[in-house]
Every structure is written in C-alpha cells, then in structure tokens.
Write a structure and sequence with these properties.
single chain, alpha/beta, Alkaline Phosphatase, subunit A, 15% strand, globular
C-alpha cells in the first residue's frame, strides 16, 4: 500500500497529437469509456490551447510554464536548457518534498540529432547512459522513458535507447518483435503511414507505460507524488496493434464536413507550407513523414479508424492506471488531469497531421480534470492553456515555483469563480519543416481567434461563435476592423522576455 499524505497526489496523463474532440463523450465515434467516465466525475475544460502546435516546444512549455520564445525551444530540434527545465513544475514540486516521475515520452531534447550531439534523449547520448538509468532528469526524480515511441523508426537497440528499449530487447526477442511491428495484419487500401501492427499488444509501448505507471503508484512512500504519464500515440504513423486496430470500422468513422483544401481567403503561408520546396538536408524525412497530401475519403477513413484504435488502447491503459489508483486507496486524494501536447487536423480542410495552420483541431487540446475540490459534471469554455498546468499543480500542492511563470493556476476557473480573457500560442517556424520560415503568434479568446505572421504582417481571424469550422477569414474584412484591433492588442501583450532564436541540433 502506498503511503498516505495530507498533501494531494497529482496524476498527469497526456497523449501525443490527440484532437481535443476525439472522445466518445465529446461526440466523436471513438470508444473511450474510461475517459468518458473520468469527465463525468470531474470537469471538462473545452478551451485549452497548446502553446505550440508541435511536440518539443509544447512539451517544454508544459514543463516550464513558459511560452516557447521564452524557454527557447521555439521549434522541434532545439533542446531545452536543462538549467531551465530543472526549475519547471517537476523540480519545484521535488524541492517541496514531492516524489516526481515521468514515464513514457519526454521529448525535452532532440532524438535525431545532427552529428555528435549528446543529451540523455538523443540517440548518441543514450549510448553513453549507464544501463538502468532512471534519472534524475529535468527536475523529475524518477524517469522511465521510451526513446521516441513513433514506430516510423524501430526501437533503438541497446546500448542505445532508454528504459522501454532496454525492456523491449531484454528478453532476446527484439528482432522478432521488430518484424511483427512492421507487419500489417490487414489491408489499409494504400493509406499513407497506416498499418495495423502485428506486434502483440503486450509489447506495445502504451501497455508498457501503463505497467510502469501502475508500479510507480504501488510503491510505498511517505511523500505525495506527481507522476506524468506520457503516451506517444495517437501520433503518426498510424500503426495500432490488434485487436484495437479492428475496433472501429473505417466505413463507420465520422469524417469532417469540410475536408477539401481551399486556399481562397487564407493567408499566404497556408499554400506555401504545403507546396514549398523543403531544403535538401530536410527533404526526405519531411516529405515522407511530415507532409501528407490530400487524402481520398477511403484513405482518410483508414487513418481515422486506426487513430481511434490507438486512442482506445490509451483509454484502456488509462482505465488500468485509474483502477490501481483506487485499489491503493488514493483516488480521493489525487488530482487527475488528462490532455494532449497538441492536436491533429485529421482531415479538417483537407489536411492531416500538423503544421502552421492552427485550426481548432490542432490548437485546442481541451482537458479533463478530476480531484478533491473539482466540481463534478462541470463544463467550462474559459480560454486556458497547457502553460497553466504547472502553476495549477503547484497551487494544488501548496508549493512555490522556482521561477516566474507565464502560466497561472486554473483553480479559480475550475471552481467556477474565475474567468480568463485569452490564451496564447506561438511558433517561430524554421524553414526546414515546410520550406518557409514564419514567426506565428496566436491569441484565442472564448469566442474568437487571431493568428499573425509577425514577419509579413499577414494573418487570419475567425469568429468561432458564428463560424466554428473556420471557413471565413475576417482578418482583412473592413467590417471586422474593431475585432482585429482588439485581438491584436491582446496579442501584443505577450511578455517582453523572449530569448534569441535557438539553433537546431537535429530534426526531432
């Protein structure tokens, strides 16, 4: 039995690249019964935006409570300064006496690096780490990481790799597992990056992450804990294992209503990001892995069905973790938060994956919160950010942050007494990803959204009350000048604490 404390535990669970609407209770046809129940027992936050729509900056922002241009990880391939990372919510809670851990995908530093660049998460760096390394790292006392988790690349073979890879190869059957991982159990009609992996679910990283989280929760300890459980799915490639891959039939999934590309009225970078030539040193990986063409309905159905399978497996894994939390008698004294680092277009406007078009499916990750003083069955549409999570954890714990934060505690919003004006997102986009460099800044209020490229002055603006599908760009509409001026003024209130642009040390 885990030791008890007057201070609450914090169980923070994330997925990677999950749209905020991809839950059964939010009306999509995906089977997420455990998360649906969690939402019914807590509060559903319907407007929670990511500070950046790609992985590394978003995750660094969650940890530090700072916007990307301030913590310095303003695009993928830029490492978070460990001295800064160690002052994030994990380090602050550890200093306050909490047992802190992260299990699964971290991605605070770069995996695929250029040349001989060594960090604990880089492929060269993992070869230098002692066997059985479990931290500390970025303020977390205990870490059990999967090296990347997206199976476009096979799990690194020790001495490379991290805890999951050590386990994956540890029984001597790693090569057999690799053959199964790359083998598809059924025909996916040629849909790109889509297969139903033959890897048994017992060896899948979602299962391993749940197993390790359960073991963490079962440990005897006198101190309260803060555990980040970080699933790498449903990020592409869409390689869900059976039987979860067959749980949702392609012919039954819900397709977006507006699923054709149309650049009319959009800012210039929409077309440029999808069609510009990518620099030669980045071209192969970006065109094969990061840039997906407009899909037929048949292919989109395959992608969505497989994504739903990945999510259903995560939901099952979450259910196992929450069951153990209750079995240990910790349910009443634990705050539980479920969200994602960023979303996926998943067919909206003819696009799949992610890029510099922050439509709601990509930007608004939403969240579920349950805890000792969290209202049951409440729904809030106040504009929040995952930047606010660290400040919220510290508020719940009665702990002080080791540094100044951009994020602020959600506690007042959760109680029903608090309101918010706006939330911010930004991406200093280097040209290696889509062929053009951009300095994007987004402000999201409860009812509207404005995004500007600060380099060119071009932008897009949507009235989300009258146009929830973001079909009509009002940025240059004279009838909405006042709205644009108001949102622009909010946009420019971003704190003046930006770092110089960082240097990419790798691809992702």
């Amino acid at each position: 039995m885990t030791g008890h404390s007057d201070r609450p535990n914090i169980l923070f669970i994330t997925s990677d690249q999950q749209r905020g609407d991809c839950y059964g209770f939010r009306g999509r046809g995906v089977q997420t019964p455990h998360l649906d129940i969690l939402a019914s027992e807590g509060t559903s936050l319907e407007t929670v935006i990511t500070p950046c729509v790609v992985c590394q900056p978003a995750r660094a922002s969650i940890l530090t409570g700072l916007l990307p241009r301030t913590h310095g990880v303003h695009d993928n391939g830029i490492d978070l300064d460990p001295g800064l990372g160690e002052q994030g919510f994990a380090g602050s809670l550890s200093a306050a006496g909490y047992s802190t851990g992260i299990i699964g995908k971290a991605h605070f530093s770069t995996y695929h690096v250029f040349g001989d660049h060594h960090t604990p998460e880089s492929i060269p760096g993992t070869r230098d780490m002692p066997e059985g390394w479990r931290g500390p790292y970025m303020g977390f006392d205990h870490v059990e990481l999967t090296h990347i988790g997206h199976n476009w690349w096979l799990p690194e073979k020790p001495p490379a790799g991290l805890a999951y890879e050590e386990w994956y190869y540890g029984d001597g059957r790693g090569e057999l597992k690799n053959k199964l991982l790359w083998g598809s159990s059924r025909d996916h009609k040629g849909a790109p990056q889509t297969w139903s992996s033959k890897l048994p679910v017992a060896w899948h990283n979602s299962t391993w992450i749940a197993d390790r989280a359960i073991d963490f929760i079962k440990q005897d300890r006198d101190a309260p804990f803060c555990l980040w459980v970080s699933f790498p799915d449903p990020h592409h490639p869409f390689d869900c294992p059976e039987p979860w891959a067959s749980l949702h039939r392609p012919e039954d999934v819900d397709l977006p209503e507006h699923r054709k590309r149309n650049f009319e009225g959009r800012p210039w970078w929409h077309k440029a990001a999808l069609e510009s030539e990518i620099p030669a040193e980045h071209r192969e990986i970006r065109e094969a892995y990061s840039r997906m063409g407009e899909l037929s309905d048949e292919h989109l159905r395959e992608v969505i069905a497989n994504t739903y399978g990945q999510l259903a497996l995560i939901d099952h894994s979450v259910g196992r973790i929450l069951t153990e939390l209750e079995a240990q008698g910790l349910g009443d004294n634990t705050y539980i938060v479920y969200t994602a680092d960023h979303g996926d277009w998943l067919g909206d406007h003819g696009m799949v994956l992610k890029g510099p078009m922050p439509f709601e499916g990509l930007l608004n990750v939403k969240a579920i919160v349950k805890g000792p003083d969290v209202p049951v069955g409440k729904v809030s549409d106040q504009p929040l950010s995952t930047l606010d999570l660290g400040a919220t954890f510290l508020d719940w714990a009665g702990a002080e942050s080791l540094m100044d934060l951009h994020g602020t505690s959600m506690r007042a919003v959760l109680s029903g007494d608090g309101t918010r004006d706006a939330a911010f997102s930004e991406w200093e986009l280097l040209p290696g990803r889509v062929g053009v460099g951009l300095s994007l800044r987004t402000v999201r209020t409860r009812t509207a959204k404005l995004t500007m490229d600060l380099k060119s002055g071009a932008g897009e603006m949507y009235d989300l009350e009258t146009d929830p599908d973001e079909l009509t760009n009002l940025f240059d509409d004279p009838a909405h000048t006042a709205m644009r001026e108001e949102l622009t003024s909010i946009l420019m209130t971003r704190p003046d604490d930006m770092r110089p642009n960082g240097v990419q040390v790798g691809m992702a």
